[in-house]
Amino acid sequence: MLFLKIFDEKENxxxxxxxxxxxxxxxxxRWRAWAADEExxxxxxxxxxxxNTLFPTLKDLKLRGNKDAGRxxxxxxxxxxxxxxxxxxxxQVINKIxxxxxxxxxxxxxxxxxxxxxxxxxxxxxxxxxxxYTPRPVTQFLVEMIAPKLGETVLDPACGxxxxxxxxxxxxxxxxxxxxxxxxxxxQNGIRGVEKKPLPHMLATTNLILHGIEVPTIDHDNLxxxxxxxxxxxxxxxxxxxxxxxxxMEEDGVENNFPAQFRTRETANLFMALxxxxxxxxxxxxxxxxxxxxxxxxxxxxxxxxxxxxxNLHTIVRLPKGVFAPxxxxxTNLLFFEKGNSTKEVWYFEHPYxxxxxxxxxxxxxxxxxxxxxxxxxxxxxxxxxxWKVSAEELKNRDYNFDVKNPxxxxxxxxxxxxxxxxxxxxxxxxxxxxxxxxxxxxxx
Length: 445
Description:
By secondary structure, the chain is an alpha/beta fold. It is built from 16 helices and nine strands. 32% of the residues are buried.
């Protein structure tokens, strides 16, 4: 509903700015035709219209060209379904949206952008939906360090709700002149995203529309399903900035799209290999990866070897626990590299908690000002209590284990809650029982 309302508001602008504008949505299905009148359809009539006419038609829109806005609408509704069972409640929600969302002025658009950002933040703690949202300070810091320029092609291959791409748009508009029609077209053509899940795909598309991208290039797809050899020079991009899903496994067979040395079903490893492959020479990348990638073996080791040989991995910012809480408590890292030259040395920066803070949580999340330490150090690098460097040769001698501890800080003593201790004990018992069962099986052969 939010998407259709916002798309209808954008169509108002296009009708004013474009001669003979023709909507890709049939006249009777446009928001203004069936939803704008608060005394309009309701109850079973409204529910039947939405389920039997609106959704089926939007899923199968006829397209007038590859850049047609109709493709965007069709992609949004491709795997979307109406889960509301009450047409009366549906009408109440529609009326509330019509009353609260007004995008006629710049001030109204800025105000709704803030509301929409809050909706996305709230999703962070809404069960599995949290995986779609990267904390805004993390996306902002990554983008500022990558420093995208107008005319460069920026890709997020697992874009979730579009947070990185929105920050790229904001950064370019803040630091460069984007005034002419040609400038705006360059910006729109340079922003690309891919998301395989329908909910975040819709949220990302809406997010970019709200930030001035008229027809966002957000593909509803999974790039891991594409064969390695299908990628050509024209598919290469200047910048990749992303937080690929980690801790998950792809479907059987996906790994066969990759060269033998990179074959695995672990999602983060596959994305990491693909990111290196898709960057142009001199292309730049900033991405989020868990600690598990740093010390991972097997395929992860071969990816890290390729990373050091083909790219200059110049910086790893080590984030503490809780940055992605409550979705996950796993420690994460920000990796920055450029393709084309091999790595000579890697700088590490241990991001500290603010004074008096022992962990991040929903009521005390990470703040963008905390990255001032990294920003002040970035262009004048010296070793200090937070920063140290390791040669590529040493990492090679460590069998490409990138999990290098800060030499200036004492090893932390892990503190566990009683629940965590019970779970650790239960896990140990399960593993012991499994080993005993295996041993019994061997002895009875």
